[in-house]
Design brief:
Strand order of the largest sheet: 2-1-3-10-4
CATH topology of the largest domain: D-Maltodextrin-Binding Protein, domain 2
Distance between the termini: 24 Å
CATH class of the largest domain: Alpha Beta
Structural class: alpha/beta
Radius of gyration: 19 Å
Number of helices: 14
Number of domains: 2
Order of helices and strands: EHHEHEHEEEHEHEHEEHHHHHHHEE
């Protein structure tokens, strides 16, 4: 079973399995794959650790936290090659870069500010004491209502919502543009299952990456497929999401080696930020977090082997 870590939508880590299923790429690999979506955020990690699902999705920082907590999980591919988070401000505010955050109000979701935010202000020498940080929940209208000056966003989501639903143009800051290249979406498996069922996972990954590559080459058809799973979603927004995430999935490394390719540097950078933020305690060899052997087995000169 593939268990997506959120509701059905055009996240690239979901699109690969959707397309592989609908284009019969799984059948080509003699796989019968069931696709489901998590009922509660975070439940997918518990189910994976308990061997109740075969593959799930998360972001790299999730993997690092899970491994450090003792969970038997590991990443087998990095889909987006940079962090999925950014920071939006109304264009009318004039905020175009992080140094302008001083004297402004920044919102944060959940219990604390995002690690991307901490990494940015540390890298650029922004004085955090001069920023007012407030919890805001998950409704992006707080930016349109000017309750905050800086809104943490998923690059493929809220900027489009604020523009199209609320009618405000926004400036978006992508941490990667400032040298803060953290981890994005990844596929996770159970380490024990990977050891005992490696050929199955190799076939799954080959079919799924074939699906993702097909989606990037046939984006309109891919959105048609997404809408089969996400009929309640706005098609134009799904098109935007896929376009943004496709761009963030392709780098010089993936052009040379193949989609989903993993390099140690983003894992190391993300681990360092988590340590600085006090969210993990120790620095480990990053190979504890990812296994690139399946990728190396299925690619030849950047192309999926037959």
């Amino acid at each position: 079973m593939f268990l997506a870590g959120y509701k059905a939508q055009a996240n690239v880590s979901f699109v690969g399995p959707y397309v592989a299923q609908e284009k019969s790429f799984y059948k080509e690999q003699n796989l019968d794959v069931e696709i489901k979506h998590v009922a509660r955020t975070g439940e997918n990690f518990k189910l994976l650790a308990a061997n109740e699902v075969d593959v799930t999705t998360g972001v790299g920082e999730d993997v690092i936290r899970l491994v450090q907590s003792g969970a038997p999980v590991i990443s087998i591919a990095s889909i987006t090659q940079r962090g999925d988070h950014g920071f939006a401000s109304l264009a009318s505010s004039g905020i175009k870069e992080p140094r302008q955050w001083e004297g402004k109000t920044a919102g944060y979701k959940g219990a604390d500010v995002a690690i991307d935010y901490l990494a940015l202000i540390h890298t650029l020498g922004v004085d955090r004491a001069k920023i007012t940080e407030v919890p805001i929940g998950y409704d992006p209208r707080v930016l349109a209502e000017k309750s905050v000056d800086i809104l943490p966003v998923f690059l493929s989501n809220e900027p489009d919502i604020v523009r199209t639903h609320f009618g405000f143009d926004v400036n978006v800051i992508d941490p990667a543009d400032y040298g803060v290249v953290l981890l994005g979406q990844t596929w996770l498996v159970n380490t024990g299952q990977l050891k005992t069922r490696r050929p199955v996972y190799e076939r799954w990954l080959k079919a799924t990456l074939k699906g993702l590559s097909y989606a990037f080459d046939h984006r309109n058809e891919a959105v048609d497929i997404v809408m089969k799973y996400a009929a309640q979603e706005d098609r134009a927004h799904q098109e935007y999401m896929l376009a943004v995430e496709q761009k963030n999935s392709i780098t010089a490394s993936t052009r040379d080696n193949g989609l989903g390719w993993m390099m140690p540097e983003p894992w190391s950078a993300t681990q360092d930020v988590l340590i600085q933020a006090g969210q993990i305690k120790s620095k480990r060899d990053v190979t504890e977090y990812f296994n690139d052997q399946l990728l190396k087995a299925i690619y030849r000169d950047g192309k999926i082997s037959v």
